[in-house]
């Protein structure tokens, strides 16, 4: 063994290589007085410390009786963008709705202008800073979307930035192409033309470069319709992308149903998802990626997480980090909200930000739980047990982050 974490007061982890749903979502493994053995960045032992096999010569990390969990997985971020949108705060306070800001050329379209104006190196430097902050909050794997370029060249630019970031800092990043995030200004009077551009130019170009695994779309009133979403995601599948969909965030327009129909890996937001949509997603074993920090920031209702769990739909929780509806990288805040507003138990919420997050980005066979054969990604917390981690809020409770067996 290269490295041993010993004197773990409480080890908490979900188990398995697939998303946990229904009753299983809260069915986690808890071991007191535990140890973890690591070789070549992979977990080779987890269990009671008095049953640890021979580890002579290994580096010892004494966890001082603290809580250890898997590294967190932030399965939904809009990580790469230029500028910020602090001007929208006073608009919001004056009662202007999020979609009205977008309709008037602000919102996502404002960030598109600033992202187009930024060069690749600038975006890489910003992304690196964001990722360092995420790592500090305990995130060891994340997803990152394009969607602020909205033309072939600038969408490719964002995705290349994501590729460079993935190769040059500790967090593993799963890349998502989201050319269908909004209709850009130059196509304001020709949305069919923009959709044609996505279908005939962007999807083939992104597929050719091999720089995105997923394809996402903002299916929402005044953005992309369910029919347009079906069309784009179906075409995306032909190019080898796995579909994702921003569904039923603000208006209930049947996005969850489309997610199930196109057999997406996940649907996101789902604040207004219908019972039928939830049922269909559960039947097809999708993951519901819920974004409570966005509900908080937009002052919207919270997704019906309890109904989803009782409908046997796997729930993941992520930050939705972006410059408009969720300008925070703090996944621990999303975890607190998952308990307080979704009424998930600490055990269910832990699964939501580890194994189920990993499943939502097709990484559940390599991370998301502390089990033999998985990557040694874990967090040592300034917390004695899991309840404490979800009970405290507003402080960063991370003590140490370990990624692939290395303290980072
Ligand atoms: O997931 N809903 C669409 N996209 C982002 C917001 C992007 C923005 O406002 O810049 C979201 O909330
Ligand atoms: Fe989003």
Question: Topology of this structure?
Answer:
Blueprint (H helix, E strand, L loop, with lengths): L2 E11 L15 E11 L2 E7 L10 E4 L4 E4 L1 E3 L12 H7 L4 H6 L4 H10 L2 H17 L2 E7 L6 H17 L3 E9 L10 H19 L4 E6 L6 H13 L3 E6 L7 H7 L4 E4 L5 H9 L3 E4 L1 H7 L6 H6 L3 E4 L13 H10 L5 H7 L2 H6 L17 E4 L4 H6 L6 E6 L2 E2 L1
Parallel strand pairs: 1-4, 1-5, 6-7, 7-8, 8-9, 9-10, 10-11, 11-12, 12-13
Antiparallel strand pairs: 1-2, 2-3, 5-14, 14-15, 15-16
Helix pairs in contact: 4-5, 5-6, 6-7, 8-9
This protein binds N-(iminomethyl)-L-glutamic acid (NIG) and fe (iii) ion.
The site of fe (iii) ion has 6 residues, from loops.
Q: Nutshell version of this structure?
A:
By secondary structure, the protein is of the alpha/beta class. It has helices at residues 87-93, 98-103, 108-117, 120-136, 152-168, 191-209, 226-238, 255-261, 275-283, 292-298, 305-310, 331-340, 346-352, 355-360, 386-391, and strands at residues 3-13, 29-39, 42-48, 59-62, 67-70, 72-74, 139-145, 172-180, 214-219, 242-247, 266-269, 287-290, 314-317, 378-381, 398-403, 406-407. The strands form two sheets. Strands 1, 2, 3, 4, 5, 14, 15 and 16 form an eight-stranded mixed sheet that branches.
Explain what you see.
The protein is α/β, with parallel strands linked by helices. Helix content is 36%, strand content 23%. The chain has helices spanning 87-93, 98-103, 108-117, 120-136, 152-168, 191-209, 226-238, 255-261, 275-283, 292-298, 305-310, 331-340, 346-352, 355-360, 386-391; strands at 3-13, 29-39, 42-48, 59-62, 67-70, 72-74, 139-145, 172-180, 214-219, 242-247, 266-269, 287-290, 314-317, 378-381, 398-403, 406-407. The strands form two sheets. Strands 1, 2, 3, 4, 5, 14, 15 and 16 form an eight-stranded mixed β-sheet that branches. An eight-stranded parallel β-sheet has the order 6-7-8-9-10-11-12-13. A hairpin with a 2-residue loop joins β2 and β3. Fe (iii) ion is lined by residues 76, 78, 246, 268, 320, 322. Residues 76, 78, 246, 268, 320, 322 line the site of fe (iii) ion.
